[in-house]
Amino acid sequence: MLKAxxxxxEIREYHSxxxxxxxxxxxxxxxxxxxCSPRVLDRLRRMDARSLALYPPRENGxxxxxxFLGVNANQVLLTxxxxxxxxxxxxxxxxxxxxxxxIVPTFAMYExxxxxxxxxxxxIPTGPEHSFPVQKVIDAVNSRTRMxxxxxxxxxxxxxxxxxxxxxxxEAAPDAAILLDExxxxxxxxxxxxxxxxMPNLFIARTFSKAYGLAGIRMGVLIGEKEQIxxxxxIASPFNVNTVALAALEEALADRQFVAGYVAQVCASREWLQxxxxxxxxxxxxxxxxxxxxxxxxxxxxILEALRARGISLRDRPDCEGxxxxxxxxxxxxxxxxxELELVVSSLPSVPQVVR
Length: 356
Ligand code: PMP
What we know:
The chain has about 350 residues and is an alpha/beta fold.
């Protein structure tokens, strides 16, 4: 009988919550609810058959992204979403018997890709209030540690990790690849990109899926020291990013105003939503992203189901007790969410007690 690799047997299938057609306000995937720059759409409409007939050249896009980021083109690799960058790093640096350290709760795909390489996963729980457990991470480093992932700001907590903590981890594990996942950088503004080249084991992943509203296009970038990036280039497909995505990228990078406006709008509606959730007695963590982690507590399942019945999907986070993750949309969308949530809460047998 045909059998997949041993390491695959432990991997659970990823069930994206996207399917239900009755949902008309999707706040569970941290996507942009308003979409990309109109300039990107215009550009895509102007594409012709000839450009689609050719294999995509990645180099021009890499040059543009490098200029945008203030690094050299040989320090960047465009990827099919940040997901591919994470996968490539795991493939390049992990092997059976090696170890990867991740801080949980966090983004699910690190484990999936690491498991595919047969690596041992060391999960370090976040500290009080989901703070970054810097000393525990450093203490966990040993001669088998080949990779450490720091998601900054972290998904699903939304919290930022202090720069000094990140530096300490990078310095404590010079023989491990440090993946700093900056998927939500556009909302937080915090980055270690200035350390690329200076810290040879540092890699940064970014994505155009969030602030740029291009999750459906699949475009990400991995940034690192040139020798390491050239190793990754050897194993990446030469045509991993497609022509449509490259055209979108070029136009998206040229329209900086669009992203700045979107980020400002998200931060304002996030602030509003957080205050409203507090008013309803729900605890939230201070987020630097386009989502909020919120504790619904014991009635979580009932609330999630009732909201779904009203067309709104939030993300259940069973890895954070009683919590859900809410993508930030427009002010109007957030007002609709609060209105529906108030109705749902008022029909609960008891008013939620805030758990601090
Ligand atoms: N990293 C983090 C922390 C994310 O939240 C996501 C998407 N949810 C990704 C990476 C993957 O992004 P992409 O769509 O570019 O593959």
